[in-house]
Queue: 4 jobs
Job 1
Amino acid sequence: MKALTWQGKGSVSVEEVPDPVIQEPTDAIVRITSTAICGSDLHLYEVLGPYMHKGDVIGHEPMGIVEEVGSAVTNLRKGDRVVVPFNISCGHCFMCGLGLQSQCETTQVKSKGSGAALFGFSELYGSVPGGQAEYLRVPHADYGPVKVGSELPDERYLFLSDILPTAWQGVEYADVPAGGTLAVFGLGPVGQFATRIGVQRGLRVIGVDPVPERRAMAERHGVETLDYGKGVADQLREMTAGRGPDAVIDAVGMEAHGSPVAGFAHQALGLLPDKLAQKAMETAGVDRLAALHTSIDAVRRGGTLSLSGVYGGTASPMPLLTMFDKQIQVRMGQCNVRRWTDELLPLVEDDADPLGVMDLVTHRSGLEGAPALYEKFQKKEDGCIKVVLNPGA
């Protein structure tokens, strides 16, 4: 089959790789009809390269048609249409029982001290082949895949694989009081959905991003916006009676701009041998923290900081004096996708499209166009906000 593979820092290519096969009774094989490029994929493209191996199949936002199921899979059959969550969870362990599927004890990558295995996301999370491919082997298919209807287009459902539940969890964790104000830093795909979810819940929502096309998209959905730059925390306080927003979601993560020292660290990591680079990431602060520190500055005293953006540094410096003094609550973590999909499914199927799932994709291609679109997405060129690949096209 054809699949998008990691070839080195800043380099991906479409290659012929072996077709996946059933390995365990709880496996399924899914023919991928749509798969998206996620902002987290850019971490593999740049910062997390030391944990990647040449030829790794990437991608973790897929959906498609079931082609084959293992003997223990009774909830699916050939021909079913499914969305595949990015984290692989069993559904019956202690953590899954708590609704913490991203910490699944059955699939935890204990050798790396990591949580649940993820599709297409490096040695840190199990080196499981990903979904930017023609076919995907899905472990624990007796629990993970979300079965969906056959009438609506893929884009109604595709984002249930990651970014929509990630945004939903971010807003849940933000815990904004009724009628309160939510600020969202970063208006990429997760930030777009987080702002729309906030509006849908009756909150005042302010989105912050330096890219005009992203701000314009958010404004179409009733979101106030600000350009990101020096003084944005003061602007947010001016807009909220001098206090700051009740909660801030950081939907940016390690790809943030405006941190030249960490930017240099990102580049330096790419020059080290993999084992040395891994050690540096596990013991040093290598994140660009401008957006995170601005979020801490901006949120009101007693407010909540909700982290949806992914960070990779173990020793990244944090302003603990400010955080303690302001009595900020901080909530974060990989999304527990299956915890939220039952709540989200009626919303994506609603004719009114209340979360605007049909107003997100800016670029589409077959697999062959993926390498160029990775570069375009990483550089934020051509108004690129969300890319969907159709492997069968």
Job 2
Amino acid sequence: MVQTLQNYINGEFVDAAGTELLDIVNPTNGELVAKAPVSVASDIDAAMAAAKQAFASWKHVPPSQRQLMLLRLADALEANSDELVEAQHRNTGQVREMIAAEEVSAGADQLRFFAGAARLLEGKSAGEYLEGHTSYVRREPIGVVAQVAPWNYPLLMAVWKIGPALAAGNTVVLKPSDTTPESTLVLARLTQDILPAGVLNVVLGNGETGAAMVEHKTPGLVSITGSVRAGIAVATGAAKGLKRAHLELGGKAPAIVFADADLKKSAAAIAEFAFFNAGQDCTAITRVLVQEAAHDELVAAMVEHTKTLKTGSQDDSENYFGPLNNINHFNAVNAVMDALPAHCSIATGGKRAGDKGYFFEPTIITGAKQEDDIVQKETFGPIITVQKFLTEAEAIEMANDVEYALASSVWTTDHGTAMRTSRDLDFGAVWINTHIMLTAEMPHGGFKSSGYGKDLSMYGVEDYTRIKHVMTVLDA
């Protein structure tokens, strides 16, 4: 019997008032694994009320106690890794080993960072900036935060959402993606004996549910990781209530490869970073810009290495990456290939992998022009283009000539080239001779249509705070 999932509100799992149900499908084989409710206004009201009530006391919990709770939650993630992995694999088809390492272990590590950050929030030092008066700054939690997480890394993105928000003293109403809710619900259950009731609430639903959360009167900040389209909708909805917004949106990451790079080593690394998680990563390499003299050698090496990156097997231990997340996205990626201009050539891949599920071959395309959709628009799949450039200036111009500005990388053995290009690339992250690597201590977030606000690091925690000036007269 297929399970119907429940919301998590005020420390308990409860049935949603909404009667519409969504099918949760395993993308490795298309089989139905669960049903999830589409939460309606009364469900959202209940979650917001629980979060608001909990905030009244949670905001006064000392940072040392919030730290201990987040540390306990990190330990709980690791202790329940197998359950979290299986719950997520049912919804994403991701390679289990990858979920365990890149989401459970990494998520626990990042929770431990946020736990420490709870005790390190800073403000301007107290002093007499006006004669006869002392001023100081309070850094305070915002209140209730509404958060919408994506389907590409469901557990890890839930951690990125709740970690800084809770560390700063906020309470949360979180909506996981409509296709990948199960690992988030396991996470919620793990908090039952750790967090006070109402501090974390999870509401299931679709885009309309998320929109209703954003426009609800209670949250002081709304946060989403998702597409540019979704980010614009969230920013617009937040603006109606003058709420703050935190947006981590799409990407079209370039990798600039100069002729002096170690081409064989660079080709293997670029292919792996591009096709990791089936390219379903807004920081994934999607555009390779290579100096003309090195183009043919790099493409040949990339194709050779890409053919070793397997996908399509029902035994995920045989795969480098799993399937695309859902049938709609699978169809969209196929449509991108169907619409390729005639001047483009497929060096490898380009079609479905296997005969079951939503697997897609790792694909390398040459001959694309800068104005082509395949270069300008986010595909969010295992597809990369390779373009030629002559000069450093041309490479920078081509790299920056997209609406996205989240991530990029430079591949060279020349220090000056690396420093100049990292300065001139208009992206929130620039890697040198590597890509996609993240650490909890460093910020993650983009510019332009990739959104605003930072995840991870102290900058990410500060995004979930507000600043208050307090002044007192000295001779009262």
Job 3
Amino acid sequence: MDHTVNATDHGTGHGTGHGGTPPAAEPPPGCPAHAGGAAAVRLSGLEYQQTPSELYRALRREHGPVAPVLLDGGIPAWLVLGYAEVTHVTAHDELFARDSRRWNQWPAIPADWPLLPFVGHQPSVLFTEGAEHQRRAGVITQALEGLDQFELAQWCREIADQLIDGFAGGGRAELMSSYAHALPMRAAVRMCGMPAGGDDTEDLVTDLRISLDTQDGDDPVAAYVRVQERIQRLVREKRAAPGPDVTSRMLTHPAGLTDVEIVQDLISVIAAAQQPTGNWIGNALRLMLTDDRFALNVSGGRLSVGQALNEVLWLDTPTQNFIGRWAVRDTTLGGRRIRAGDCLVLGLAAANTDPQIWPEGHVGAENSAHLSFGNGEHRCPYPAPLLADSVARTAIETLLERLPDVVLAAEPEELTWRPSIWMRGLTSLPVRFTPVTA
């Protein structure tokens, strides 16, 4: 589950100690910001948004595979850049655990800190450990296993056709908002048993985006409260009238999860199905529309959609960083001294392009050993990656079948990335094509 949204009830704090204390002006000695006397790097700014790979290379040169960084408000943490180091952290829960209440920085975290939706502890599968995590993840796994992949692909084909019908006659479209994000959200809503097309469903899409990928003027705290209220209503509805959907299967699972637990885990499932998958679709479409290897050749062939999707997971993974893990006790990692309670940000994008695993600077995309779906106990539970692949593949294949001459309606260098250090996705993807009637 490493690539899903981490949500929190910001109004209560759940005993984590994040009250109204302002951030410390200067990090205390011994924390990551003072590591080895080297200055910590702020995870923000235009360079990070548009060319994060350059920042990763610079951090590696300066700090090695584990770099001291500053989160919003100057809060210190470690960014784990190395493939071997990310794999080690995610494989050793006894050293690097998920319960964020261990964090030694809580006294410095203000009540309105923008990253609280990611790290504030909740009764969610994302923050559980050991046997409890296995129990909760097992419920999600079995609920998802009840989905027929062929039926899901058919749903996605229907949704794709409906969305394409909405813009096909105009000869132009902006695919991120009208297609790439809209399709997986509608698929997630349907698989969880929510009625499609309603205003509350569209509001849920917006609020999930705000709580996961905050932009200027957004209120992630209020957005998450609205998300929680809508999912609470869904759970009540399915308690009264269960159906053939993920929510109902979670409610009737013999593990006997409470409504509170199911609400939190459903939010994780829906968020994982929508935001990362939408960016996966958008990033793969960008690759196919800007790279000659994916253009039709004289024999009518092109590199496959599957190849594009896999290459994107290596080079432009939708979740570039994930917060995080918290050190259970003092230890070392990548030559750094990690203190008990330190926060580690998993640099998934940096790890996927680690030169230690790609000699001579060549990053291949021929295998699936990337870390884009996480690793270890908290990786995305089977069959979530297969379902996401089915959604993304169907979305792209349907678009190319319906609009075979679609091309980018801007210069490739004009495309911009959303201002997020966590998610990797385009702000827009304008295209043009020969208008067709539905």
Job 4
Amino acid sequence: MGPLSRRAFALAALTSLVTAPGAVALPGAGAPVRRPRGTTEMRGVWVATVANRDWPSQPGLPADEQCRELIAHLDRAVRDRLNTVILQVRPTADALWPSPYEPWSEFLAGTQGRDPGWDPLGTAVREAHARGLELHAWCNPYRIALDTDLDRLAPTHPAREHPDWVVAYGGKLYYNPGLPQVRAFVRRAMLDAVAKYPVDAVHFDDYFYPYPVAGQTFDDDEAYDRYGGDFGSRAAWRRDNINKLVQEMAAGIRRVRPGTRFGISPFGVWRNASTDPRGSDTQAGVQTYDDLCADTRRWVREHWIDYIVPQLYWNIGFAAADYAKLVDWWAAVAKGTRTRLYIGEALYKAGAAGQPSAWQDPVELSRHLTLAARRPQVRGHVFFAAKDVAADPIGAMARVVADHYERSAKPPR
């Protein structure tokens, strides 16, 4: 996985975790649990475009080659009896469709703002639907750039026109979530895709306030002084900013295209139980509630979103963040709510150098699905990511398909 991948940031945030021994044996691990015939389940794959992680394979390819590569990912999803493709269409405050708000993504033509000569999102929706796949439009709300040079952005980029909206942090540029005008703008920019295309869902990833960087401060003093007076702490104000974005985005989607869903894929630990008795039995170095100011538990319990896909990117038995314990915790959170629970799976770890021994076993991921199938609140899985589905170096995805995806399934609605 490349260092610029969104999941690389999440992994870097776990620097305090200690690798545990390999996966523990599960009762019945050799006999995969399958859902009854005729049921529905999420079988998804993320297609990351940031830094050309999954697609296009490199910037500047001819339009017809980009299109062929995209369709190959869709065909591969069909081959593996997946039913949902989550395509990153707004990776860095840019667009993979002709947007009146933001420039064309540099990951297409190689230069931000340059027309790639085709409409990737429109094509993706049409071709996915033709194959019986759902297409979820994946947006990163606040990330502007992977460096701190405003002058590298397209001349008409909103961040250059409104530098007061921008915060440099950790070697990157972000929109300031504490500014109401920023929240209104990013919502408008993302809803443009919903208005133009019959996407099945809008999908946010795990970046809200950025992951902590040691020795650095996210400079939102001016915004806090102006807008934070009604809150007992800066953290409470920041959480309210993110809560407002989530609620307003959900309302906007319902207004613009009724029936289109809204889902979020957060980092897998809301809070450790040592911090909050409602939290999970984990010792994670990052907690979304405290560090990213994302109250993911509340979004589920109050049904602000239609589905949640916590990134449970650890093996069964991992000491600091055990996959099995986290599945149980998230199932308990989702129980009795109308929010669908799917699990984000770290396919990219399977066979990767430097990963614990559990990830060198091609059966580890299949064990995840076997375990999760015993929790009725878990309605499916999403795999990170498309490049790894294609490569499948140790056959972990092939084992999942053989053990669990013998027949096609429709995604939950």
